């Protein structure tokens, strides 16, 4: 997503859903070697496979989610929250793992 922010999401029951799909793209970045697959200063995020950075869009979305949303709401806390924010900042956590760990954190808060 090119323009990720709180306004692109809505609450539906107890779930957060993406409401604005205008900027969603599934086209992966072209590459010649793994080092072409980067976001900012973080290189070799995903492998270059058949001329495309396989999985770079997912990493780009994770980076956008962290920068525009999560770093503002996960500001207090140590331990698991600090570890998770560091992994998100380094783009070293998968979407599935992030989902699972956020659910665990929410359950601990209840």
TrEMBL record:
InterPro entries for the chain: PKDCC
Molecular function per GO: non-membrane spanning protein tyrosine kinase activity
Cited PANTHER family: PROTEIN KINASE DOMAIN-CONTAINING PROTEIN
Protein's name in the database: Uncharacterized protein LOC118421673
Organism: Branchiostoma floridae
């Amino acid at each position: 997503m090119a323009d990720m922010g709180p306004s692109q999401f809505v609450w539906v029951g107890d779930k957060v859903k993406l409401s604005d799909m205008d900027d969603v793209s599934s086209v992966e970045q072209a590459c010649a070697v793994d080092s072409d697959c980067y976001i900012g200063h973080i290189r070799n995020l995903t492998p270059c496979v058949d001329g495309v950075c396989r999985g770079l869009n997912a990493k780009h979305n994770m980076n956008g989610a962290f920068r525009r949303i999560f770093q503002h709401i996960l500001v207090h806390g140590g331990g698991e929250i600090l570890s998770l924010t560091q992994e998100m900042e380094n783009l070293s956590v998968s979407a599935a793992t992030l989902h699972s760990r956020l659910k665990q954190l929410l359950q601990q808060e209840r």
